[in-house]
Design goal:
84% of the residues lie in helices and 0% in strands. By secondary structure, it is mainly α. The protein has one domain: Flagellar protein FliS (Four Helix Bundle (Hemerythrin (Met), subunit A), Up-down Bundle), CATH 1.20.120.340.
Amino acid sequence: MKRRYEPEAVIAASPVERLVDELILSLRLADAAFERGDLEAVDDGLCRAQDILLALRTDLWGVAADLTHMYRELREANLQKNWGQAARVLKVVEELAEAWRHAAEQEARRLAADARAAEVGE
C-alpha cells in the first residue's frame, strides 16, 4: 500500500516513520541509479540506506538482528553492485514499513500517556 503524503502527515510523522520513509526513498533512488548505470549514485543511495538501518536498530523493538542482516545484505550488494540483492532488501523493507509505522505510533501514544500520568501525579 502506497502512502499519500500530505504536509500535515510529514510534520506529524514520528522519527521512526521519517526514517522508514527515507530508507525506502534511498533504496528506490539507488534502483533508478542502477538502471541509469550511475554507480556513484547507487553507492550513495545504498550507503544512505545502510546508515538508516543502523539508526533504526536503536529505535525499533526486537528487530535488531533482522536490521543487521539487511545492513549486511546492502553492504554486500553495494560492493558487488548486485541490484538483485538490494532489491530483495527493498521488498522486505516495503513489506515491514507499515508494521514499523504502527509500532512507532503505539510507542508514541504510550509515551504520551506516561507523560500525562506523570503530570497528574505531580
